[in-house]
Design a protein that fits this description.
Number of helices: 6
CATH topology: DHBP synthase
Structural class: alpha/beta
Distance between the termini: 49 Å
Radius of gyration: 16 Å
CATH architecture: Alpha-Beta Complex
Order of helices and strands: EHEEHEHEEHEHEEEH
Number of domains: 1
Largest sheet: 10 strands, mixed
Oligomer: single chain
């Protein structure tokens, strides 16, 4: 079983960043559910797919340390998407944006990549120390309920993960709302904590 370390331990950020730099997987809490993360390279992302038993055609979202990190993975940041980010980040909103051409092909087989800034300062510190962006999917087996505790994540992923960062029970408990823009029009890809009404109001 991978190492367990509390989120508020003095060395957690350094240990997590070093684990990621080796290409290993980590589990970390967010404001919604626990996620399993990898650095954005093809081999590490492949480990993430294997650990989750996730079908290859399903894209992996990216967690960012800050709004300014969007262009690390996105080719552009259209004005409507930026307005939503400014209104709801950090928070439970994932934006599907046009992806950069130099991203690992197994991160997303789509022309887009999902990005989000989580509302948990210690997790954002880990993301910043790891370079500002990590490929992160929910810390479960594909199509199973999300993990809201470190114990649930460990039951799902076991020895496939090198480091488990324990932040207690995730208070959100529901995966983020995922939105895309198609010909400038807002589309809800996955319902979540943010209502369509709230999103549309932020665009007005």
């Amino acid at each position: 079983m991978g190492r367990i370390i509390p989120l508020d331990h003095a060395d957690t950020v350094l240990i997590a960043a070093a684990t990621i730099a080796r290409g290993d997987l980590i589990v970390l809490p967010t404001d919604t559910v626990y996620g399993v993360g990898a650095r954005i390279d093809e081999a590490a992302i492949e480990r993430l797919f294997v650990a989750k038993r996730r079908p290859a055609e399903r894209a992996i979202p990216v967690l960012l340390a800050d709004l300014d990190d969007v262009l690390r993975v996105a080719r552009e940041f259209p004005a409507p998407a930026r307005r939503l980010a400014e209104a709801f980040w950090p928070g439970p909103l994932t934006l599907a944006l046009p992806k950069r051409d130099d991203l690992p092909p197994n991160l997303s087989m789509l022309p887009s990549v999902g990005v989000r800034v989580p509302d948990l300062p210690q997790t954002r510190a880990i993301l910043a120390a790891a370079g500002g962006a990590l490929a992160v999917s929910s810390a479960n087996r594909s199509d199973q309920p999300p993990a809201c505790t470190i114990q649930a994540a460990m039951r799902y992923l076991g020895e496939a993960v090198a480091l488990y960062v324990d932040g207690g029970t995730c208070l959100g408990g529901v995966p983020s709302t995922v939105v895309a823009f198609e010909e400038g029009e807002l589309r809800i890809v996955r319902p979540g904590p943010l209502s369509e009404e709230a999103l549309r109001a932020a665009l007005e």
